[in-house]
From TrEMBL:
Coiled coil: none annotated. This is Uncharacterized protein. Residues 1-18 have a biased composition (Polar residues). Keywords: Membrane, Transmembrane, Transmembrane helix. Residues 1-20 are annotated as: Disordered.
Amino acid sequence: MGDTETAVSTGPSPSLPTLTRDLGRSARYKALAGAVGAGLLTGGTALGLFSRFGTAPVAVRDTYAQAGHVAGAAAVAGGLVLAIAVAAWFAGRSRQADLWSTHHRWELGATATVVLVLGFLGTMSWNEHLPSSYTTLRTEMPYFEQLTTSVGALALVAIGSILVLPLAFHMGVARTLRRGTSTAAVAMGLAIAAVVSVVAVRAGDDRLNVDHSTAAPTPVPAAADRFGTEAFRLQLPPLNNRPEATGREVIPAGTGFLVIGVDGLRAFDGATGEPRWHYLRRPQSGTRTLIYDRGSAITAADGAIVTTRWTGRSGTRRITFDAVTGQILWTSDDHTDFTSDDPDSPARLLEAPASDTLIVETDTAVKGYDARTAARRWVTPVAESGCRSTDVGTRVTADAVYRVLRCGGSTWRVIAIDTATGGVIGHRDYPASPSNKPTLTLLQNMTLIDFWTPDNPAYMLVEKPDQLATTPLRTSGSPFAAAADGSDLLVGLFDPATRQSHVDLTTYDGTSRTRVAEMSPSDPNSGAVHVLAEEIIALEYNTALRLSRWPLRNPTSPNAVPIEATCRPKATQPTLLPVPASILVVCQNNEEIGDATLDIIGYR
């Protein structure tokens, strides 16, 4: 088969001779290259189709190569050259003689087409700045499969096209290989393409940049009834004054608490302080491509679920975890109702720690989603006739969403929306004036609606949303802390006669009232005072850190407990934080100081 083929003519001799071509010694190598190239083209075309239609697209700046365009071009070019290679192979195998004048016209056309395809791929890569774009995107953005698979497909198609060029130029070389040999060569090309595809998919897996561990499911312990003895002490290392170090957050979640920083989440057990799970992002080439957006963590279902937002040059990404186990429940890359609903419209996710519904508000609607699955539960329009949205912060309890509207120019309207069904439970109107603007504050599972003005310090304390319309207005005192079940309240009062402020412990209906000795009213958002099941505790920090404790049923005399901590004067934000199984004293030292640590002491 490797010998020179000579055509034997039985008809009349033509005026010009028809020449036969010598296949030569290199014919088998050309045929082998063409067979391997066909395998590469098959794999490259398949990888290009997968990259274009089977991977999630990621938006990048127009100055960078668009991975979707590259993948589509590779798939089309690969399919075209593969069709030429297959046709050339069977055309060459079917010949009895390789005639120059008879066959060369087809070969020139096939060769020119393959060369044009290679030129197109090269020009596209140049115009798209593909090499530099690939390097930059791999450094500055989280890894994504469409980039690596599109480049892999382009490389396979380009190399495969080069390998089939000799076959296209001289199709007769296909006769030099036996069927078994050609099949093995194609299989080799497919195997190489498969390896490249696996490497490309693996290289685009962003999990390479993530250190993620999980924990076994376990029951969430109850909250501490009282401030006990020291159970554990953690000192997390400093962030070394890194530019992206914006401070760490400590929030109750799961079986204890979460420490969230620029690099990710760390979960700790509330009873022992032992680590449970973590989700940390590693820098890529020394650069943090995706950074936790400080203050974005929202807990739901009594701390069993936590959702977080991350930002980078690629935009924002939301990741939601089971706070007990650390398992990822869903992300913004998943196809869910949460991610598909008005992705470009301004929306805000509200804090709703006691509800198992994620609450999102826009200017015209409030929406509820299952926190665990991101499935839409309900949508409630709130743009009532003659009313408009306001910038008053919306608050969410376990039972209701409380939102403030401005109706006309003379009325504030507070509406309550059921967190389970989205139905409007009730509303309450209050006269508006230039000097009053309501504020909404959560006190455990109650909502403090304050209409304070210098002349009329009125407020409502709503315990049940269906009683919003009938909840009495109060004008005496200012509540700032409450027990978890709402049975006891701390109310700050001002005595005009002595011009002194004091604090009373009262029931919700005000039928019982007891003076709390040596306590001053506090900001309800400071977290410095808490009402536990058995006692009242308050954290004080002047020249030294100490905790004052009052028995809940007889708060006539406080017991001061010194706290040994590394809180730095004028550089620290000490916090008292009840979490499952314990109460934390958190020393958040100013992280602009290079050696500042985060100190957490657990008492139970």
